């Protein structure tokens, strides 16, 4: 895979998912992990996780993907490609503001939102299927879910606590 191929891929997937970072994960996984085998599932999950616990757009994890494959240049160009569609959409914003109250546009927006949720759930299931292969991984997953969703903990704190628990369980079971 060349840098240009990666950038075209990221740009295309970003347009297809309307900038939905989690929605891009299954597309990137299928292409970069399953088909081309230039990344492992763990590398993709690492990039995604780091981006989720740091401030910024949900799709900025592609900078880490670009870095893993092509170094600093890949990271910077991946960021530019991920940001570019937003600037291309600015002229359309005025038209949307004029038409947003119409029934068709509201329905289309609801459909896009539902599609995004579906893509996120699909990505979660695909990643979970590959990452949750041992009991300790399930414990860490369930603890993280409980801390962030049920107890409403900060995602960074949840990540630290759950990762620490995973490390402790790994050391104890060896």
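Sequence proposed for the structure above (174 residues):
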């Amino acid at each position: 895979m060349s840098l240009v191929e990666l950038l075209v891929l990221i740009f295309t997937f970003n347009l297809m998912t309307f900038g939905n970072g989690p929605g891009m994960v299954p597309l990137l996984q299928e292409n970069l992990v399953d088909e081309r085998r230039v990344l492992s599932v763990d590398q993709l999950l690492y990039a995604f996780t780091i981006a989720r616990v740091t401030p910024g757009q949900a799709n900025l994890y592609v900078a880490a993907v670009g870095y893993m494959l092509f170094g600093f240049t890949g990271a910077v160009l991946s960021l530019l490609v991920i940001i570019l569609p937003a600037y291309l959409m600015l002229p359309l914003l005025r038209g949307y503001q004029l038409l947003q109250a119409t029934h068709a546009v509201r329905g289309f927006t609801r459909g896009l939102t539902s599609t995004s949720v579906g893509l996120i759930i699909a990505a979660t299931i695909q990643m979970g299927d590959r990452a949750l292969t041992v009991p300790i991984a399930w414990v860490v997953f369930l603890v993280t879910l409980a801390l962030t969703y049920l107890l409403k903990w900060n995602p960074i704190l949840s990540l630290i606590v759950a990762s620490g628990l995973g490390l402790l369980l790994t050391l104890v079971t060896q």
